[in-house]
Structure formats: structure tokens, C-alpha cells
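[SOLVED] Need 3D model of a two-part complex

Original post:
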Amino acid sequence: MTETENTRIVLASRPEGRPTPANFRLERAPMPSLGDGQVLLKTLYLSLDPYMRGRMSAAKSYAAPVEIGQVMEGGTVAEVVESRDAAFKPGDIVLSYSGWQSHAAVSAKGLRKLDPQAAPVTTALGVLGMPGFTAYAGLLTIGQPKPGETLVVAAASGPVGSAVGQIARLKGARAVGIAGGPEKCAFVRETFGFDEVIDHRDPQMADKLAAACPGGIDVYFENVGGHVWDAVFPLFNSFARIPVCGLVAQYNATGAFPGPDRLPLLMRDILSKSLTIRGFIQREFVPTQGKAFQEEMTRWVAEGAIRYKEDIVEGLENAPEALIGLLEGKNFGKLIVKV
Amino acid sequence: MTETENTRIVLASRPEGRPTPANFRLERAPMPSLGDGQVLLKTLYLSLDPYMRGRMSAAKSYAAPVEIGQVMEGGTVAEVVESRDAAFKPGDIVLSYSGWQSHAAVSAKGLRKLDPQAAPVTTALGVLGMPGFTAYAGLLTIGQPKPGETLVVAAASGPVGSAVGQIARLKGARAVGIAGGPEKCAFVRETFGFDEVIDHRDPQMADKLAAACPGGIDVYFENVGGHVWDAVFPLFNSFARIPVCGLVAQYNATGAFPGPDRLPLLMRDILSKSLTIRGFIQREFVPTQGKAFQEEMTRWVAEGAIRYKEDIVEGLENAPEALIGLLEGKNFGKLIVKV
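Solution:
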């Protein structure tokens, strides 16, 4: 790669089921030229997140899909190389949404300047960025954990789950995490300080979860779906709250789901236990919670009250394999590509 | 029946699937004797409601089941025959929860005196009672209909559904009702003033519902479940709210439900459309909404802004058949037994 070309990864085809490397294509293109009010960015870090699986599908969702041949979308931390906007100058480090490419010409309006002295810039893609805000806003607005209550969250070693459990504990609740494999489980318990951790690969997972929640579950932060749901479902207390921010276990599913039909039992328990189930996308809460998040979470991270883990992959060309692995739980911490 | 005996209907056995007359037994017992602070009631009217199916089952729910041999529970309007409490005197008409029997000795504490001049006393079991409050509190607290939005409610000729649609219209929303058969549908449109009504027995129900909701559904007040859900589900708008107060279509179900499994698709739409599903039992809202309901709903009924329909069955001995019919949608309006 030379600095006179833009290296980028486009969506080559839509996946059927789990994505494969063939769904992506690495291309080289001329360096983009700048318009008024734009800046030229050189990507330093690209965030990889589960929602990207949705953008690869044509199915209707809360956001438009990436078109075939378009650059894959994604949040980035980038350096300003050239600027035609008074607010930015070369060398500035910014948070952008410039996607899977080495360079991009973008409107200065959508950028947020980062202070590398205040926190490592990669945190703007993780604990102090979209995943951290997803945890903060969904948990506090919908989940509303109270002292003495029990919260359960899966993917507890990931950027959302780890923040959810730690914030719940700051609010006085017990945090029970679910993670995959002994290494992640140990980290969730020891570094993130969860009260209990269950390995979702354990054949006794449901029994162990029940034992870890002797008083039932008051908040289940749903970010995975799949077989974890079946273990959690019987344990809901009356008035339990279930924020739904992700269903990574079913993103690759195709076709109809075989029976039995679990919907009537869910509806029965929604009624008999006065459950609240509420789906959300974090941007809904930006106007009401964004400022509080930046202040409070930055302070918590600075104080060490909230800890985080990053999983950094080198090289844009490795982004497709890294995303495929993410959808299978192979990452360990916030997955970021160093471009 | 003489005034020296209490006639009552007890739960003889628990139903498997739909209840039958053999699940009930009519008994005569000595007139109950009074303790201090109690009053002797003579039942005038007994309310029959879908929740009673739940009380006949041993399955865990939000309320304890009626035990075998116990008098069936239910709300009543009764006349005070004898009083050992200073606040009540013979001839007073009260709202009680004295169940399926001609007489009862109850604590005066649980009684509310009714003013027969203010409204027909039967309304305390319907539009101005528990069903009306279920509609009011669930719709306004969870459903939150806004001007121009579309609300859908089933059992629209019943006491909850008819109030839900009319209150939604008072709040500026469009009300689309679902009811069973041409007579009920005409009544919902003409007397209750719904904007559109669909017959759930119509084989084209789903298509007709979609046509009646060209802008999608913003609030679905769930009180039936069953096949209505499948017609409603594809029409939800983003941020739709779904208060769940009843599932009468599945109360008689036994065993597992055959596939396909509809849960993953529901979870997918909860996420992609940011849906809110919230079960509730009206009593949760009594402390916060009870007073506003009594004032506002009494005024709406007095002004004719809210209309209601009662279906009065004569004779306590006919209560079992009437409840069995209610669970099949055979009643037409608020079902009340004149004892």
C-alpha cells in the first residue's frame, strides 16, 4: 500500500448463513479528493462489531444494508491528513464512521476530535464509544438495576457485556456473567469483578445459572439469543426487565426455525410475571444519555471502576476473518483492527 | 334458595384444556356468621372475567389458584344485609370480591360503597371497574397512543377492548378493532365508534387488517393471543408498544406447542424495530392511576364519550356455562351474572 492509493474492503456478495471470506473483496482505488468542508482521513483503527452482520444482509432492519460493491461500514479512529474545514488540522485524531478502508474523504460535521492524553484513542471505539454507550444507556434506561437485584449478561468478556456487568455492580446489583471457555470466564470474574460467571459451553450451564441466581433474575441484558435464552427464561422474577440489544447467536440463521414453538410460553410469562422486553439501538438514547455517558464513563474508566479489554488485530486485510470469528465468539475483548 | 342458606359454586376439579360444567359444583351451606368488623353481603351481581380460567389451574401465576372445594373467586356488587362495622349499614350497595355465592361474611375493610345514583351499579364490574381500569392503565401507561398513531385491539366488543379503542380515539389515535362475527363488528364500529373493524373469523383477516393499517401499527393492546397475533406481528412500526393483559386464546391450551418456533422472529423484530412488550396486571397501577381513572372515566361515561355494553345472565347456577362461553368468545359485552 502506498500513500497515493486507498485500500478498501467492499461487500462482494451477501452471505447465506455464516459469512465467508468470499463475501468480501479487497480493492485499491485512487486517493479520494476533497470537497469544501471535508477532511481527508487516514484510518488508524477500525472497530468490528456484531451489527455488521446485519448490514451484509438485504433483510429489512433499522439501518440500510451495505450495497454489493460498497465499502463495508464501520466506526474508525483516524488521523486528519488534509483539511478543508477550519475546525480540523492535519495531525488531529478523530472518531469517524469511515468504514473498512485506509483513507476517506468525509464531511467534517460528523467527526469528533479525540484527546490522546485523556484516554487511549482506541477506547473511543469500545468502552468510551458505541459499545460502552450501548451498555450504559440500555442498562440504565431499560434494565434499571437496583441494589440487591440480580443481573445476567452474556458475552460478558465482550465490550458490551463487560460494561453492563460492571455498571450493574456500581448500582448495587449482583452481576452474573456468561462467557465461552475457562480463560474468558476467569477474566470476567477476576478482572471485571462479576459475582458469578458461567461457561455457556458447559453442558450443565442451565443448572449452574440457576444455582448462581438463587433469587431469580431481575435484569437480563440480551445481546446473544440462542441457547442462553432457554437457560435464562425460567428464572425471570416478576417485573424483570429485558433490554434487547443483540442476538448474535441467530444472525447467521437461515430459513424457518424448527419447533416446538416457544412464543406461547414467552407470552404466558410476559403476562404472568409482568415482564418488560424492549429492543433498542443505542443511537435512540444519544440525545438524552450521551452527555451523561461521556462524563460518567470517562470518570469510571479513569478511576479504574470500569475496566475493559481490547483484542487488536493487525492489518485491514485481516478484517474479514476477524469479523467471521467475532460472530462465533472467537474474539476476546473489544475487537479492533489496526489498519 | 331460602334466605337462611348460602348457595355457592365451588371448584370441583381442575380442567384439562377447556373447562366443563363438571369442573364446578353447586352447594348449599349454612348462612355465614359475622365477626367484629365484618358485614354480611347478599350478592346482587357477579362479574365473570377471563382471568378466572387461570385461577382454576394449579400452574404458577401472579395469583394463587382456587383450591379444590373452595368457592370460585370473583368480583361482586352486593347489598349489605347485616353489619358489624360502623361504616356500613343494611341496604348499602358495595363492590366486593366475595365470589360465586349468594351470601358472604367479609371484612368491611375491602369494600367500596357504590352510589346507585351516580351510575348503574353494574358498571363497577365493567367500564368503571377492573376491566375499564385494565384498559385505561395499560393503554395510557404502556401503550401511550399519540395523535395520528394506529392502535389495534382484539375482543373489541368486550369490556377491555371496547374501552381501549375508545380511549385511544379520545387521545387522537386511530382505533382498529378485531371482533368475532358481523353483529359484534357492527356494534364496535357503530356504537363504540372504532375507525375500522375486522372479523377474526374472516379467512382474509390478515390481509384486511393490513389494509386497515396502511401506516402500520403503533400500539397493539394484547388481550387474546392466538391467530390474531400472527396477523398483527408483521405490521408493527418501529417503537411500537405492546401492553399484554390477556391471552384468552391460549388459556385452555395443554402440552407443547408445535413448530415452527416463532420466538427467534419475535426477538429479531423486537431488536430491529425497537419494540416494547410489557405484561401487566391492573392492580400494579392502582396506586398511581386509580384515582385519575375513577375521575376521568366516570366523567367520560357520564358525557357519553365512552360507551359500554353489558351481557347479563340470570341465575348463579348459570355461571359455569357462562364462563365456559366467555372463554370461547360467546359473550357480547361485559359478562355479568345477576345472582
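Edit: The interface with chain A takes residues 54, 60-62, 222, 225, 229, 238, 244-247, 250, 253, 256-281, 284 of chain B (CB under 8 Å).
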